[in-house]
Amino acid sequence: MSVLDRFAAHLSGELGRSPHTVRGYLADLRSLLAFLEENGYRVEDLDVLLVRGWLSRARDAGAGRATVARRVAAVRALTRFLHREGVLAADPGPRLSGPSQQRSLPTVLDEEQAAAALSRPSGDSPSDLRRRAVVEVLYATGVRVAELCALDLADVDRERDTVRVLGKGAKERTVPVGGPALDALDAWLSGGRPETVTPASGSALFLGARGGRLGVRQAREDVHVHLRAAGADGAPHGLRHSAATHLLNGGADLRSVQEFLGHASPRSTQIYTHVSVERLRDTYRQAYPRA
C-alpha cells in the first residue's frame, strides 16, 4: 500500500474526515510528491524548505490564498502522520505557516426575507413537500447540507423536538428544531416519503426521486428552487449563515451558537458577530439622525 493510500485510510478511518476533504488533500499531496520526484527527492526527505519550494511554485502559478492555506493544512496532516509512522525523523509541519484568511462576510437573508420565503405556500407533490421540509429543517437547525442528507428517521426526536446530527470528524450533536420545520417534516413523512420509498430507501429521512437517500446536489437544487419561487436567492449554506445570524440578533450568546452549528472552535463562529455588527451599522446609518 502506498503512502497516500495509508494516509487516506488514516484520514477517513481514524480522523473521520469527509470524502470531500480526503479527495482535496490527496489531490494536493499528489502534486507535492510529483514535485519531490521532479527534483530528485523522496517522501522521506520532506522538510520545511522543500514544502516552501512547492508552495512557492503554486503561488507563482497563480494559486490563491485559500488554495495555499488548504495545501499547508494537507501537508501538516501528512507530515504528522509520517512522523507517527516513523517515515520522518521529525515533523516539519508545526514550522509551516499558511496565509491568513481574509474571510468575506457570508450572505444572509434578513428575518423578513426568511419569514417570507418560508411562509410561501408550496405544492403537495412529493418533490414539493420534500423541498419545503429541506428548507425548513436547514434554516431551523443550521445543519450543513451534507449533515441533512445523512439524517435517518430515528434521528428526529419528536418528544424533545430535537435532531441528532453527525457532523465533521464524526462528532455527534443534538440541535433543537422548531414547530414549522416539524410540521413540514410531518407533511413530507405522511404525504411525500411514502410515495417515493423503495426497498433501497433504508432508514434515510430524505429521499431522492428514485427512492435512494437524497444527495447533496439535489438538496442544493431544492433550496434554490424554493427560494427562487419565493423571490429570494440563496444556497443551503446561506440558510445556515442566516440561522446563526438571526440567533445572535435575537440575543443568543456566541458559545450557544457555536454548539448549535457544531463548530470545533469559537473562531469559526465569530464571523457571525461581524455580520450582526454590519447590520447594526447599516441600521444606525439609516435611522440615527447624527450618523
TrEMBL record:
Keywords: Cell cycle, Cell division, Chromosome partition, Cytoplasm, DNA integration, DNA recombination, DNA-binding. PROSITE patterns: CB, DIHYDROOROTASE_1, TYR_RECOMBINASE. The active site is at residues 144, 168, 237, 240, 263, 272. The keyword DNA-binding applies. CDD domains: INT_XerDC_C (cd00798). Residues 1-83 form the Core-binding (CB) domain. Signal peptide: none annotated. InterPro entries: CB, Dihydroorotase_CS, DNA_brk_join_enz, Integrase-like_cat_sf, Integrase_catalytic, Integrase_recombinase_N, Integrase_SAM-like_N, Tyrosine_recombinase_XerC/XerD. It is found in: Cytoplasm. Residues 104-285 form the Tyr recombinase domain. Pfam families: Phage_int_SAM_1, Phage_integrase. Its main location: cytoplasm. SUPFAM superfamilies: DNA breaking-rejoining enzymes, lambda integrase-like, N-terminal domain. Belongs to the 'phage' integrase family. XerC subfamily. Site-specific tyrosine recombinase, which acts by catalyzing the cutting and rejoining of the recombining DNA molecules. The XerC-XerD complex is essential to convert dimers of the bacterial chromosome into monomers to permit their segregation at cell division. It also contributes to the segregational stability of plasmids. Forms a cyclic heterotetrameric complex composed of two molecules of XerC and two molecules of XerD. This is Tyrosine recombinase XerC. It comes from Nocardiopsis codii.
